[in-house]
Design a protein that fits this description.
By secondary structure, this protein is α/β, with parallel strands linked by helices. Among the domains are: 178 residues, Rossmann fold (3-Layer(aba) Sandwich); 79 residues, Luciferase, Domain 3 (Luciferase, domain 3), CATH 2.30.38; 107 residues, GMP Synthetase, Chain A, domain 3 (2-Layer Sandwich), CATH 3.30.300. It is built from 15 helices and 27 strands. Helix 2 crosses helix 3 and helix 7 crosses helix 8.
Length: 570
Amino acid sequence: MYEKQPWLKHFGETPVSLDYPPVSIFALLKKDCEKYPNLDGLIFFGGKTSKSLLLKQIVHMSCQFAKIGIKKGDTVIICLPNMPQAVVAFYALNRLGAIPAPIHPLSAPVEIENYAKLVSANTAITLDGFFPRFAAVKNFKFEKIIVCSLKTEMSFFIKIGFFLTIGRKIKKVPYSSEVLKWTDMDLRSGVGSQELTDPDPLKADDLALILFSGGSTGEPKAIMLSNKNCNALAIQMNASGGPTSPGDKMLSILPIFHGFGLAVGIHAMLINSSACILIPKFKAKGLAVLVKKYKPQFIAGVPSLYDSLSADKNFNKIKLDSFKGIFSGGDSLSPEIKRRFDDVLLNGGCRVTLREGYGLTETVTACAIMPRKEYRDNSFGIPCPDNWLKVVKPGTEEECECMEDGEICISGPTVMLGYFKDSKATADVIKKHKDGRAWVHTGDIGCMDADGFFYFKQRAKRIIKTSGIAVYPSQIENVINKHPSVRVSCVIGIPHENRGEDIKAFIQLKAGIEGTDALKQEIIDFCKNDLMPHSRPRIIEYIDKMPMTNVGKVAFRELEEREKNKAKAN
């Protein structure tokens, strides 16, 4: 029974269970906008959009989308950075009954083509600077492409600066009956359109959003999420994240194509009397300016973001006492990065610390988070309200013993509907257990302690086998990252004729540290305190800058590929 789960005694003020209104994503936003019409909804390059105006824009654009032929059930690619048009498009499509499918703004033409074909999307919404990539798509033709511009949301002087730096490099878009300009359609254009005959037709369990991910099967997948999935996640995060007040603000840095960015950075705030400070591109120096100007209460980011902020001189000089909640997700947060950033927060007068969460796109995003008043090294915390987590022996339903490593499984209201047009992959990941619940088998290796705190060890497929023993790279990285000279590390396995695989660590040193052979040996010796002999790195290579993925994770596959190519060349 849920009420007997060990993690519940650590909930503190967080409710054990929550109510999830049986409505659409748009309906939940609409309720908040009508309750707080005069509060800010969006803040972008100094410009502010009130809740009432945001709602008007969404209603208007839903009608405009219908006017150009988008209908209930259609999938629409959204290829935009964090900007007002992206938020309006997301909710407007939901009101119409269409399905937004956000993709990375820097997607290559072949990726755009693959995404569109995978989800049968005939319409796309993108930025003028990204349009050439859509024009270069060879084997697929969009019926309509709606093109936005960053400059339309900027003040006069900011617009001039934008043109002198980036804007003048943007090629002119060949507008036509197929390539439409957002500003010719939006509320400011003055163009009218007939109200929808059936506004907000989607129900709680209907498909509302498609997000793309590598998926637990390791292959690119289109993840189908319902209105209930997205709303439940937002409601859970608001309950777990900390007390909020009308008028609070979130630094919305994480991109909307990422579940963490869309559900936590945008939706959770906009349904909870709060505003989103939209940031299309992260720069540590620029973030310090925004914090100083707007004094936000919340921020959600990936570990690399907090690592960058810890090293930024500007961020280290400002007051940080406005923050109520600071959250890390998308990748494992090393204790060293947490301690460094917590020191920055303390020095800035902040009363809270960095809290790690855990999740995957198959559950929208976060399904567990560290409690507000407790921290345990290398743990990602406890389940959010109404979520169940357990650790099973791989390939079975059998639960592991306390602190025994196994596969992490998740059950709760945020579990996806499935993979788009891939019932086999869905069945491989979502399994009904003897308890009658549907469980997502994450493919992640971890364990649970006696108090219900969970620990992520490694993706199941990212294991180094050395002398027949399984070694988890992330555990080695956590140890190496504690060394005072190390900024960040990445561990991979390389072929070895006797051991099968050897352990190699790529290390980016902190600024001003010289990479010597003596330091390499010092780091290897440093690992002896926490790692068994078979888990210690045998080879170290310094790297000037660690390669990162589009969502801020260390790109270990890129390093693996680099090592393979080096071996072939030799």
